[in-house]
Design brief:
Elements: E1 8-12, H1 20-26, E2 31-36, E3 41-45, H2 51-54, E4 62-66, H3 77-89, H4 91-97, H5 126-129, E5 133-140, E6 151-158, H6 160-164, H7 171-178, H8 184-188, E7 190-194, H9 197-211, H10 221-233, H11 237-250, H12 256-266, H13 269-281, H14 292-295, H15 298-304, H16 312-328, H17 335-341, H18 355-366, H19 375-386, H20 389-392, H21 396-403, H22 407-468, E8 500-509, E9 512-521
Parallel strand pairs: 5-7
Antiparallel strand pairs: 1-4, 2-3, 2-4, 5-6, 8-9
Helix pairs in contact: 9-10, 10-11, 10-12, 12-13, 13-15, 16-18, 17-18, 18-19, 19-22
Length: 524
């Protein structure tokens, strides 16, 4: 006998392909309950008039057949055979009595365009979005003296498929979901992430980036470094790349201090490397009062100066920047660090203005242990000696720095200044002699020019005298009343002029060409 307990059979087939062996199994039961996994139910009652009419199976590929709490009733094959025979005999008659089912055309309109038609989203009620995982972001506010530190927890209801199988997938969550059964997270379907408050603020932008594949990353200066950090932490390659490209284009001298603070907060060496390269390439544009000089570390500038141009103007400006940086960060400079910032490769030349300041900083870094001058102090001495004019009347700050210098430095500076002054004096004398020679040559040329000018003046007087001998006659009346026209020059015939000649010229006016005569004579 069959025991009074549920019997479940799973059939992977269409309802029309039930095997005959299954029917023989079912014939031993009075009542069979057939249901699909969606909860819809159909029944087969063996005691009905016809087996084929009462056993109806829904069109699903996977069924669950429950034979539970039903007493076993012995049934012979003859009973089943008679039921089949009755069904066969009444088959034609039943088929004839069937009426054609009329189809109804649906007049339902299109779905409304509203929020419910959007794709999957992590926003909203998790019951409505069918969320299957929860991420709880735990963050703490910055610890300040006035405001005590507080902890915040923000839940995000997400979907495992979109986090792991999308184009912008997270390998971190993929590994987590694959091994979730081994951790407590798999049982609660919850992941807790402890993030800095800056990264927690950027987390919604990360989820939007994962869910909306066709939209660019929503990023700005304040969230760029945090998003790049989240891309590394959650292993999202696309996010790392897009955030990094934004940083390269967005970094400027105005926001360099923001990128430095955020990169140091997350210990992001990639962003620090990009920032150092930018500062080195634009070192000539950095002002001595820039905020980045006050908050940065020596490592940033050691890496930055490797990318700086080696033009004389840039090298001089770098020496000013390093002096300002050292003044703002005296505690961060040991001898090795200071020498790295002021080495010969980075600052082969020193500007005279910060030279004494750099010498004092070098003394502090070396703790006055060196008796001889360092390479930096020698370069500073050279720069001051080349500008010894500024030492003639130094200001109060320079005078104070000169008093603090070692005797060896002052002697070296004095000797170099004298040599430079002597060299400049010799050069000035040579230039003066050359100027005198040039002046003498110029005076000779001027005398020659004056002689030529006098000769030209005499020739001009003779020409004027000859021209005064020629006097024109009064013009006679011109035919047809035209205005007389005097020729620009007269042709000399055979080297002499007759006492009186008559020349005929053609004159044009508004009425055409006219003939006129002019008379002239030669006296003498």
């Amino acid at each position: 006998m069959l025991m009074n307990r549920p019997l479940e059979l799973a059939i992977l087939a269409s309802p029309c392909s039930l095997s005959l062996s299954l029917l023989f199994v079912l014939e031993s039961f009075n009542h069979v309950r057939v249901s699909d996994y969606g909860g819809r139910v159909c029944h087969w009652n063996q005691e009905g008039p016809a087996f084929g009419q009462n056993f109806q199976v829904l069109s699903f590929s996977l069924f669950q057949i429950s034979l539970g709490s039903l007493p076993h009733v012995a049934a012979s094959r003859a009973t089943v055979a008679s039921a089949k025979e009755e069904t066969t005999q009444n088959g034609g008659e039943g088929a004839a009595s069937l009426k054609a089912k009329r189809f109804q055309i649906s007049e339902e309109g299109p779905p409304p365009t509203n929020e419910s038609n959007r794709g999957q989203t992590w926003r909203g009620d998790p019951a409505e979005t069918f969320s299957d995982w929860k991420i709880v972001v735990i963050s703490k506010t910055p610890d300040e003296e006035e405001t005590p530190q507080a902890t915040y927890q923000v839940p995000y209801h997400v979907h495992k498929f979109l986090l792991t199988c999308g184009r912008r997938n997270s390998k971190y969550f993929a590994k987590l979901f694959q091994n979730s059964s081994s951790f407590q997270e798999g049982k609660s379907c919850t992941t807790e992430l402890e993030l800095d408050s800056l990264a927690a603020t950027a987390f919604p932008a990360l989820l939007d980036y994962l869910y909306e594949h066709d939209k660019p990353l929503q990023v700005e200066t304040k969230t760029a470094t945090a998003l790049h950090y989240l891309g590394e932490y959650l292993d999202i390659h696309h996010l790392r790349w897009d955030a990094l490209q934004f940083c390269k284009k967005n970094i400027s001298l105005d926001n360099a201090d923001i990128y430095y603070k955020h990169a140091m907060l997350f210990q992001n060496e990639t962003i620090l490397g990009i920032l150092a390269k930018f500062l080195g390439e634009n070192s000539l544009k950095i002002d001595e009062s820039a905020h980045i000089l006050q908050i940065s570390s020596p490592d940033l500038w050691i890496n930055a100066l490797e990318h700086s141009p080696q033009s004389p103007e840039t090298i001089m400006h770098i020496s000013k920047l390093m002096a300002k940086f050292a003044q703002h960060n005296p505690c961060a400079l040991d001898l090795e660090t200071f020498q790295a910032l002021s080495c010969l490769e980075i600052t082969p030349q020193i500007d005279a203005h910060p030279a004494l300041t750099l010498c004092s900083l070098d003394d502090k870094a070396a703790k006055d242990s060196a008796e001889e001058l360092s390479q930096l102090q020698e370069r500073c001495s050279d720069s001051l000696a080349q500008n010894w004019e500024s030492l003639v009347s130094p200001d109060d700050a320079m005078a104070l720095l000169l008093k603090d210098r070692k005797a060896a430095f002052l002697v070296d500076l004095l000797l170099k200044s004298l040599r430079d002054a002597q060299s400049k004096l010799s050069s000035t004398k040579l230039e003066l002699e050359n100027t005198k020679e040039t002046l003498a040559s110029t005076e000779c040329d001027l005398s020659s020019t004056r002689s030529k000018l006098s000769a030209r003046t005499r020739d001009l007087g003779l020409v004027n005298a000859e021209l005064e001998k020629f006097k024109p006659l009064e013009s006679r009346q011109v035919q047809w009343g035209d205005v007389a026209a005097v020729p620009d020059s007269l042709s000399l015939l055979n080297g002499s002029l007759a006492s009186q000649k008559t020349q005929q010229f053609s004159v044009r006016n508004g009425f055409g060409e006219r003939k006129c005569r002019y008379a002239f004579y030669h006296e003498g």
